[in-house]
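Repro:
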Amino acid sequence: MSYNDHERLLTVYEVADILKLSVLTIYKYIRTNELEVLEFGGHYRISESSLASFIQNHTVNKKRKEDAS
């Protein structure tokens, strides 16, 4: 994961609020390495680019829906 020093770092609670998911679900994504994080003394921070990548990886587009049919 690359980090830009001008990039905002988000807490697990902020990411949960943005995605409208529970904090426990966000921790699950962290534990399974689906969401890249920075760790500082047991506290996680998620970069905006990591969150954007996570969202992109979970986007279901028309082509993927057609492939499933």
